[in-house]
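Students often ask why we bother encoding 3D structure as a string. The short answer is that it lets us treat folding as translation between two languages. Here is a chain of 518 residues written in the first language.
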Amino acid sequence: MRRRRVITAGVTVAAVGLLAAVTVPALAGDDRTDQPATDRAGAGQPAATEIVTALGRDLGVSTADARTRLATERWAGRTVATLRADLGDAYGGAWITADGTDLVVAVTDPDLAARVDASGARAQLVPRSQRQLDAVKRQLDADAGSANPDLAGWYVDVADNTVVLLARPGAQAAARDFAATAGVPVDALRVDVSDETPVPLFDVRGGDPYFIGAGGRCSVGFSVVGGFVTAGHCGRPGDTTTGFNQQAQGVFQASSFPGDDWAFVAVNGDWTPQPVINDFNGGTLPVAGATEAPVGASICRSGSTTGTRCGVIQARNVTVNYPEGAVTGLTRTDVCAEPGDSGGAWLSGDQAQGVTSGGSGNCQIGGVTFFQPLAEILEVNNLTLVTTTDADTPPGGGPAVPTVAPTPPGDGSSQGCTGHEVVRRGELDAVGDRQVQPDGRSFRAGAGRHSACLQAPDGARYDLALQRFTAAGWRTVARGDADGTVTELSFSGPAGSYRYRVGSDQGVGGYLLGFSVN
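And here it is in the second language, the structure alphabet:
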């Protein structure tokens, strides 16, 4: 493997045609979860049969128990997201119990335990918050360059409310010295003996295989608009790839390793990103979203060397001390992997989690494997995950353009337009002018209902269009012609990158645009 430092090339407009994203408040909708455990089943789509079968094999559970566990984990993912925001500095982390039946949420404030219990989770009082634990781990990360090679890595163990340092046999003293030099308090640290020797799985593939230049092989992680994500140690920006059929496929646009372990490959027009993962059993697994699963949740990965393998999430925000340098922010699992599996996809149910980084052991004797979380890859590179909800396009074209209902009498006033989550003002100086909002850029949104209101100047007629970024570029998915000076627009669509376009068909002057997603 080539030894190199962090490559920070970002994906820009030139790479995939995406404009810079802006944040829109509450775009994912209000998905607050306060149902008791008895109401957890049935949330979301049924799990794929292949996932259920793999879980039964690798976790030793029945089909019924596997399905129940997956339903609980879907509920837990939403519940943790809500409680993390509600509890603030008192949030101490969350995990699913070993039997997969309960969600435990740690809190530092006993007065907030009732709020956790009301959600259907079980509260546990701890001395340190998640932020405090993460701060302790950052102290170790800051000194990663001086870490002894006999230290395999370190991570936050939320269930134990400590930071764990993994030391090979005989290196416990070196681990404690490293922690002391970093200024880590003794009571926040646990040293575990481990014979792990993690290395990046460079000779790899992830759903389907791809090949880098004239050398290595890696795995496709997840499809994104314009290409796919994979492991950073697989290639540098500018490296070319060929696909499983040895046909020209794409070019690495961005890559980061060590420090992180992610990359984005933009594909050419002969390849169409699909929201599925190869299950290596004659079928595919759907990718419906990217809700992060808690510690303790079951998880499966696909790789070309060892197929689909399952286990559980053991820890998040793990630092792994590879020979090439430390990589931070990885997720640790007890799933096995082997060379040829790097870059491949990790699923919890039908929710995308990340791409294979490296590991220790193999699938004959067992081992541990780490993955780079997907959320960071998408955010840093302004990418949009391709999911099954993106697949409802009509034959021969882009997304259907729905008819927008006329504005009801009395609605759509400027006061109504300002009542939306995001409000922008602009001005068109000539008939035929077009402007993109918000602020000439795009925004990310989860699956949901888009609504917008446009107030044009008196006597003017302005056009309002909602556009979504696809593999073919920006496509109009909803349009409304002004009824008088007011236009209202409504559209239910999948997750993705969106923007509004305002244009003048008649008249000039200032306008007001308000929009929301729920």
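Translate back mentally: Residues 1-38, 202-206, 390-415 have pLDDT under 50 and may be disordered. Keep this in mind for the problem set.
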